[in-house]
Amino acid sequence: MPSTCRNFAVSLGALAMAACSANTSPAPVSYSQVDMSEYIMAAVLSPARPAEDIARDEARKPEEIVTFASVQRGDVVAEIAPGGGYYTRILSQTVGAEGKVYALMPAFFANRPGGLDGINAIAERYGNVEVVVVEGYDTLSLPEPVDLVWTTENYHDLANGNVAATNSWAYGALEPGGIYFVEDHAAPGTGLSATSTLHRIDPAAVRDQVTEAGFVLEAESDLLRNPADPHDASPRDFGGVSDKFALRFRKPR
Known about the structure:
This protein has about 250 residues and is of the alpha/beta class. About 35% of the residues lie in helices and about 20% in strands. It has 11 helices and 7 strands.
């Protein structure tokens, strides 16, 4: 367990249990005089999170990543391609009942038999999650502006399509001052050449594409860096933890 987990375990164990138990609704409790670090830790420690997600925490560092992304209580989040919902659960409990998470599932998942079963189960269990099936980001419209657009480990797939439209949509969907958070598998110096072959992307290419849409790069994080990764295999084939980057962009006010 990370040191911060140990530091918060005693004080937050009861909060996490109250926020979400296996037999009751996992809607976050109403905390009083608690800063964001404790909200985030309560979400990470929630006993409603499945064991397979918890097993990935050491490699994904969710507490630190959600903190870096500046997620706030009450935020409205648009999560692009949430997959199995690893971050959906954490974001849902971090933003709380005052917030909202729109889980934007690509249509090709929805068209598979049972393709939406997992994310629909999360939405049913977590009252502030809404599943939205996405045909394309150039025509996607959400019922309200969002505070955060979030994408992890799939920007390289977006780059294989009309990523300019995706980034333009993100810019338009966000409130002024809103955040666009991108985390993905790194392939430094490759531009866009590894997006469909190695399922990685050059962080410099992401910076160029997203800032071209009007965003300002606010911060970069090396939390998920792994210099031992040779960057010559797909993350699924690499026999270790892949080298990843995290970028926080902001829409100007």
